[in-house]
Specification:
Layout (H helix, E strand, L loop, with lengths): L2 H20 L3 H8 L3 H8 L7 H11 L3 H5 L16 E5 L5 E9 L3 E9 L4 E4 L7 E8 L1 E6 L2 E6 L3 E5 L4 E4 L6 E8 L5
Antiparallel strand pairs: 1-2, 2-3, 3-10, 4-9, 5-8, 5-10, 6-7, 6-9
Helix pairs in contact: 1-3, 2-3, 2-4
Length: about 190
């Protein structure tokens, strides 16, 4: 079985599990997440591989991290994620990518990401739920972080934090690869 098949099956189990645990009907989750009921049915039946944007919307609507959506088994108090187990959810032919390194639910979802953006590339993000905070630490190159239409330059060695309840874009306007570690904290669903 391929890694993609394993992710598809894990996502199917977890969307259904967490939707049921939250007491959401398919229609309620579809409305909260802004995705179609048909898409949710396909996901829960492991018949599709949704975009990262769709997975993020579903996680946000359920109030859980992408890590939780992709990992059914809740392990021991200490969980080691080997480098080869980090989940790459987005990449480009030029070599840009992001990898979900680890995540937890305490008190809401918290995720840690490894990002690489090649020169001239960018990755836009839709607004996350109000109260979501992102922290970035640039380890190489320079990040152009655009939040609510305003660009901020974050050089290697510098960190930034921002409220992610508005549109934002991670970009590399430089001539060398940009690498960063990012943490995302989403408030719990009320």
């Amino acid at each position: 079985m391929s890694d993609l098949d394993l992710l598809t099956q894990s996502l199917a189990r977890n969307v259904k599990r967490w939707r049921t645990e939250r007491g959401f009907t398919l229609d309620a989750l579809a409305a909260r997440a802004g995705v179609s009921r048909g898409m949710l049915i396909q996901i829960e039946q492991a018949r599709t591989n949704p975009s990262i944007g769709t997975v993020v919307k579903i996680g946000d609507a359920l109030g859980i991290s992408i890590t939780t959506l992709l990992d059914y088994e809740q392990g021991p108090k200490v969980r080691i994620v080997a480098p080869e187990q980090a989940v790459r959810l987005w990449h480009t032919d030029a070599g840009s990518y992001n990898r979900l390194l680890a995540g937890t639910e305490a008190p809401g979802p918290v995720e840690m990401w490894d990002w690489r953006l090649m020169p001239g590339e960018s990755s836009p993000s839709e607004p996350h739920p109000v109260g979501t905070v992102e922290l970035v630490h640039v380890t190489a190159g320079e990040l152009t972080l655009t939040v609510d239409g305003v660009a901020h330059l974050v050089p290697a060695g510098a960190s930034a934090t921002f409220e992610a309840g508005t549109e934002h874009t991670y970009g590399n306007e430089g001539d060398v690869p940009m690498e960063m570690i990012m943490a995302v904290s989403v408030p719990p669903v009320r």
